[in-house]
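Dear Dr. H.,

I hope your travels went smoothly. While you were away I took the liberty of generating a structure for the chain from your last submission, since the lab meeting agenda had it listed for discussion. I wanted you to have the full record in hand beforehand rather than looking at slides cold. The sequence, exactly as received, is reproduced here:
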Amino acid sequence: MADKACVQRLQKEFKALSREPVPHVVAKPSPSDILEWHFVLEGSEGTPFQGGFYYGKLKFPPDYPFKPPGISMITPNGRFATHKKICMSMSDFHPESWNPMWSVSRLLLQTPVPRAQTAYMGVKKMDNAPTTGSINSTVEEKQLLAKQSLACNVKSATFRKLFPELVDKHNELLRLAKEEVERAAAEAAAKAAAPGTSKSGSEGGSQNSVRSRSKGRKTEESTAGGGGQQRNDAVHAR
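The corresponding predicted structure, in token form, is as follows:
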């Protein structure tokens, strides 16, 4: 059970975080456990994590802030294994380096997020520097996981409850994707129909032109033949 001082400190930090949010990060304590915080990190532009939304957890000890929290990622990201603690200087892997003056906001800024200003996700060099909890993956694999991240997150009931705005974003992206598919299908159908109609009309026009020229030649031949017969009749009459 959390100490009274721990609960008060975390409540105070949540209020401070609500007033001054960390850019591209959303964090909320669990409604049933103040020691468990859930966060979502947005991937930065120009990185393999662009477009991704990475869901993770902070697990605070009962005597926080005198001891650091544990940090884990839930969303598959290609940089860290899911549901396993991540090793970093501000986590419970290194309690000797922890400073009780550090806040949750600072912790989130230093969390191994998929953003350009941190080296933990291997963004700057696009590498896979090994550390406890890390995994290896290609840039392409990270990009694919980024595209799939929201769809993966909304499967979690806790995520849906804590971050309804991101669920709405996911639904909006699905709607836009559906409209794009329907629009592309309609354009393809229109293009397929247009050449067929034009070709049919062209062929019909060509056939009519051929028939007209053929009819004209027959008329000319008939006229020419009639004139020859009249000349022959005139010769016999003389």
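Two observations you may find useful: The CA atoms of residues 1 and 62 lie 6 Å apart. The domain at 4-162 is CATH 3.10.110.10 (Ubiquitin Conjugating Enzyme).

With kind regards,
E. W.
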